[in-house]
Amino acid sequence: MSLEVTLEFSGGAELLFDKIKSRVVALPVPRPDGAKWTIRAFLVWIRDNLLKERPELFLQGDTIRPGILVLVNDQDWELIGELDYELEAKDTILFISTLHGG
Amino acid sequence: MTASATRAARIHALQDEIGSLKALLAAKEAALAREVALVEQDHEDNQDEVDATAAATERLNKNDVARFSRHLLMEEIGVTGQLKLKHCRILVVGAGGLGSPALLYLAAAGVGTLGVVDYDVVDLNNLQRQVLHSETRIGIPKVTSAAIGIAQINSACQVRTFNCALTRENALDIVQNFDIVLDASDNPATRYLINDACVLLDRPLVSGSALRMEGQLTTYHINGGPCYRCIFPAPPVATTVTNCSDGGVLGAVTGIIGVLQALEAVKIAVGLPAAFAQQLLLFDGTLGKFRSFKLRNRRPDCAVCGDQPTITRDLIDYEAFCGSAACDKTPSLKLLSPDERISCKDAEKLLRAATSTNPLLIDVRPRLQFNICSLPQFINIPYAPPNTQDADFIASVQELLTRRESAGLPTRPEVVLVCRRGNDSQLAARLLKSTLGLDQVVDIAGGLEEWSRCVDPDLPMY
Ligand SMILES: [Zn+2]
C-alpha cells in the first residue's frame, strides 16, 4: 500500500531536487510507527529520500526554511494547518522558492 | 581600442546624451505650454460658467480624448477612470527589468504622476531587458534616463525622480507622496523596507520579482489582506538568495511581470478589484504557464501590519535584518586566510611558469559562464553551491588527478582555483583541502572580475 501525492518545486527550489519540477511520489502506508502522513513527516521523508546535500537550503529545524512557500492543492499551507496537515491521496504539494530579482 | 578611438566614442556618447537631454527639455517645455494653455482655458471656462469651478478641472481636453480613446471606450475605464489615472500618483521602486516595462505602460496609460527611485546608472548589460533605457543613455542615472523615456511616450506625465537608494531614512518621505507603490527592486532588504513603508502609510503594494525563466507577483496590504511580512515573517538566509546578476533572467520574463504590475496598478487606480490581492501569481516561462494560489490572511501577529506592531515609523535596519546589502551586488566572502590565496598579479607570474611546474588549474564557474570567457590552460570543473553537489565536484577532481598520475605528473600538485568573483573558489579550496588532503591549494583573490581589472582588460565581463 502507498499514498501517492504530487510533489512540485518552483522558483529554483527544484535545483535541490535534480531540477525536476514535478514528480509523483509513493509514500508507504501504514507508516512504521502507525502515525499519519502529516506534512511534518513528509518533510522528513523528503530530506531522507530526495535531498542529497545541504538540507539547510530546504529545511530549518523540523520545518521549511524562510523564503520557501508551501502550497497544498493551490492553497497556502497556513490556511490548512501547516505542519499538521494530513496528506491525502492525489494531493499536490508545491514548494516555491521566492524570487527577489528584478 | 586605441586612445583616440576611445575618445571619439566618448565624444559621440556625450553628443548623443546632449541630444537626448535636449529632446527631454523640448518635451517638458511643450508639456508646460500645454498646461499653461489649459489653465487659461479653464480660466475662460470659469468665467463662462461661474458655478462650475470644480468641474472645469474634472474633464479631459481634446488631446486627452484622442490619446486615450481606447480606454474611454471601455466600460472598465471610461472618462471617470481616465480622470482617476490622471490624478493618480504611482511610485516605482527600481527602474530595472521590472520597473522599465511597468513605467512604460503606466506613462502610456495616462498616469498623471510617476515617481521613480533608483540609485544606479544605466549599464550596457541592462539593455537586454530594461527597455526604458537606451544605448545613448549608458552611464547616466537610471532615473534620468527613465524620465527621458517617459517624456518621449507621454510628455504630460509628471515624473518625480529620486536618484538614491530607498532607505530607512527617506522611505516614508518619498512614499507618502504617492497613492500606489510598485516593488520592482532586486533584493530582500529593499523589499522588506518598501513593505513596511507601505503598511505604515497605508498604500497598496504591487510586488513583482523574476529570475531566469520565472516570475512572481502579489499585491500586498490591500482590502485588509496580508502584507509581505505576513507571508515572509523571517528573511531568507542570505546565501540562499540568487540575484539576476548571478542566475540570469530572460528579458521577456521581467517584461511580462512588469507589465502585469502596471495592469494591477491601473486597476487599483481606477477602482477595479485588485486581481492579485492575497494571491500569488506564478509565471513559468519554460512551460508557458500562469498559476495562481490563494495566500494566507493577514497575520494578527505580523510585526508591521499586525494588531500590536513592533515596527513603527522609525523603521528598522533592513540590511542587518536580512543579513545582506540592499542591492543586487554579490558580497565578497572571506573564508580563506590571505596566505591561502594569491593575487591576480602573482597568479599571472605563476601561470607563465606553469609549463615547468604543472599546477592543476581549475575554473569552478558554471559551464555556461566558462563558455563566455576563460583563461588559457584552465580546466572547467563547476562548483557553484547550491547548484552543484560536493560529491560530484570531488569525484571530478579526483578523476583528473588520477589521469595526471598515469601521465607521470605529481600526485599532489599545486592547485589554483578561479571563479567569477573569488567566492566559490574559496569554498572549493576549502572542500579540496578537507576531502582530498591536497595541501597546496590556492584561489585567485577577486576572481576573473579582478583579473579583467588588473591583468587583462580585454577579458569580457558579464
Ligand atoms: Zn503583515
Automatic annotation (TrEMBL), chain A:
InterPro entries documented for this protein: Beta-grasp_dom_sf (IPR012675), Mopterin_synth/thiamin_S_b (IPR016155), Urm1 (IPR015221)
Domain of life: Eukaryota
GO cellular component, one term: cytosol
Pathway listed: tRNA modification; 5-methoxycarbonylmethyl-2-thiouridine-tRNA biosynthesis
Cross-link (Glycyl lysine isopeptide (Gly-Lys) (interchain with K-? in acceptor proteins)) at residue(s): G102
Localization per record: Cytoplasm
Entry PTM: C-terminal thiocarboxylation occurs in 2 steps, it is first acyl-adenylated (-COAMP) via the hesA/moeB/thiF part of the MOCS3/UBA4 homolog, then thiocarboxylated (-COSH) via the rhodanese domain of the MOCS3/UBA4 homolog.
Known role: Acts as a sulfur carrier required for 2-thiolation of mcm(5)S(2)U at tRNA wobble positions of cytosolic tRNA(Lys), tRNA(Glu) and tRNA(Gln). Serves as sulfur donor in tRNA 2-thiolation reaction by being thiocarboxylated (-COSH) at its C-terminus by the MOCS3/UBA4 homolog. The sulfur is then transferred to tRNA to form 2-thiolation of mcm(5)S(2)U. Also acts as a ubiquitin-like protein (UBL) that is covalently conjugated via an isopeptide bond to lysine residues of target proteins.
Entry similarity comment: Belongs to the URM1 family.
Name of the featured protein: Ubiquitin-related modifier 1 homolog
Organism from which the protein derives: Capsaspora owczarzaki (strain ATCC 30864)
UniProtKB/TrEMBL annotation, chain B:
CC cofactor: Zn(2+)
Alphabetical keyword list: ATP-binding, Cytoplasm, Metal-binding, Multifunctional enzyme, Nucleotide-binding, Transferase, tRNA processing, Zinc
Pfam families membership: Rhodanese (PF00581), ThiF (PF00899)
Entry binding sites for ATP: G97, D118, N125, N126, L127, Q128, R129, K142, D186, N187
Domain Rhodanese positions: 355-460
Matches recorded under InterPro entries: MOCS3/Uba4, Rhodanese-like_dom, Rhodanese-like_dom_sf, ThiF/MoeB/HesA, ThiF_NAD_FAD-bd, Ubiquitin-activating_enz
Binding-site list for Zn(2+): C227, C230, C302, C305
Major place of residence: cytoplasm
Active site: C244 (glycyl thioester intermediate), C419 (cysteine persulfide intermediate)
Role this protein plays: Plays a central role in 2-thiolation of mcm(5)S(2)U at tRNA wobble positions of cytosolic tRNA(Lys), tRNA(Glu) and tRNA(Gln). Acts by mediating the C-terminal thiocarboxylation of the sulfur carrier URM1. Its N-terminus first activates URM1 as acyl-adenylate (-COAMP), then the persulfide sulfur on the catalytic cysteine is transferred to URM1 to form thiocarboxylation (-COSH) of its C-terminus. The reaction probably involves hydrogen sulfide that is generated from the persulfide intermediate and that acts as nucleophile towards URM1. Subsequently, a transient disulfide bond is formed.
Matching NCBIfam families: PRK05690.1 (NF004281)
Name the UniProt record assigns to this protein: Adenylyltransferase and sulfurtransferase MOCS3 homolog
Organism: Capsaspora owczarzaki (strain ATCC 30864)
